[in-house]
Amino acid sequence: MGRRNHDPPDCSRTEGMIPVSASGDLKGLRFDRAELAGAVADLGVLVPIAIALIVTNGLSATAVLVPAGLLYVAAGLIYRLPVPVQPLKAFGAIAIAQGLGANEIAAGSLLMGGVFVVLGASGLLNRVAKIFPLPIIRGVQLSVGLLFCQLAWKLTTAPPAAFTDHIQPTWWLVTGAVVVTLAGLLMHRLTVALVLVVLTIIAIGLSFHGPVLFGPSPIHFPELSIQTFATAAVVLVLPQLPLTFANSCLATADAARIYFGPAAERVQPGRLAMSLGVANLLAGSISGMPVCHGAGGLTAHYSFGARTGGAPIILGTILLVLAVAFGASLPVLLASFPLQILAGLLAIAGLLHIVLLKDLRQPAHWALAIAVGITGLLSNLAIAMVGALLIWWAAEALSKARA
């Protein structure tokens, strides 16, 4: 029924960007304007969730940014490509909605870290990844792209409470988000991203009120119990596991092969599981924000110009400097971040991520990918993947029986 996700990629596909064969220094690290532009392209998910966890759930601002910053730097050094770092989206959304405390979030991070370290170290995840055909991977990527577009819309129409004191009326946000999105899609995205960096700095400066406090915010070690771990496992970890498995490991490795061909050899599902697992063990130990990788983030970094591990190292360093030097002021500083820019970046990444479906050729593959994507967005990604796998391998068995 078609090429599976572990088959060799078509390295001639470069999504209209710089061909891998023409970029002789992908194995090295660059720290130029293109890497800087790509580095800031994936803040649309990180900033709102980070702010909500700080303001709503009482997490230390320094503890929130340190695991993300360290994982970004490690990803740049390990993979040598713009492998992204994002908050655990389902995990974070549930924790925020239910007002869970730092202890439950820390327990969930430790459980996530332990599970993915075991999966990565054992090699089990790489073996399991081989049973997932390309249309199902594309369906997961479609679900993520649609989720990004949905988040962009919600940022403009129903801004998080932490931002409401620092933003303009909603119709200005909607207009700004549309302008940013169209500019990013139609113009040179490197230029657009750098302009957005300047506009963001200006907007934060105009919105920020009060003295700047230097130094990190206090870091607290979690108080854990069997009940805390039980609550975290049921409420936070179980809903997050399929999304992290599918998007952070399988879909991210696949997207890396699409964009970088042979240069993405290091970006394997098992390695991604190991790096995000270790980062979550750290996050849990200091009551920080749980993190992961993400295929949508990779599309965002790549689309705005990032081609090497320089981009994640740049952003990771910025996050670490903010966490250590300005941690005490971060809740107000980040809440001043202009939402229209975040929404625009999210929408661009979402739309470009959906375009990954274009390499599907057969109508049946399109139907399966769309079914996974829509079901994953509206219901449950685990149900969507299991159902699609059953359909795929039943069709494969039937085809072999007829032959």
Could you tell me the strand content as a percent range?
A: under 5%
Distance between the termini: 13 Å
Number of beta strands: 2
The chain-level mean pLDDT equals 81
Quickly count the domains. 1
Brief description of this entry?
With 403 residues, this protein is mostly helical.
What order do the helices and strands come in, and which of them pair?
Layout: H1 33-39, H2 43-55, H3 61-79, E1 86-87, H4 89-98, H5 102-122, H6 124-129, H7 134-157, H8 170-186, H9 189-207, H10 226-260, H11 269-285, E2 291-292, H12 295-303, H13 310-325, H14 330-335, H15 339-354, H16 363-378, H17 381-402
Antiparallel strand pairs: 1-2
Describe the structure.
The chain is mainly α. The chain has one domain (20-361). The protein is 68% helix and 1% strand. It contains 17 helices and 2 strands. It has helices at 33-39, 43-55, 61-79, 89-98, 102-122, 124-129, 134-157, 170-186, 189-207, 226-260, 269-285, 295-303, 310-325, 330-335, 339-354, 363-378, 381-402; strands spanning 86-87, 291-292. It has a two-stranded antiparallel sheet. The longest helix is centred in the middle third of the chain and has 35 residues, at 226-260. The radius of gyration is 20 Å and the shape is globular. The two termini are 13 Å apart.
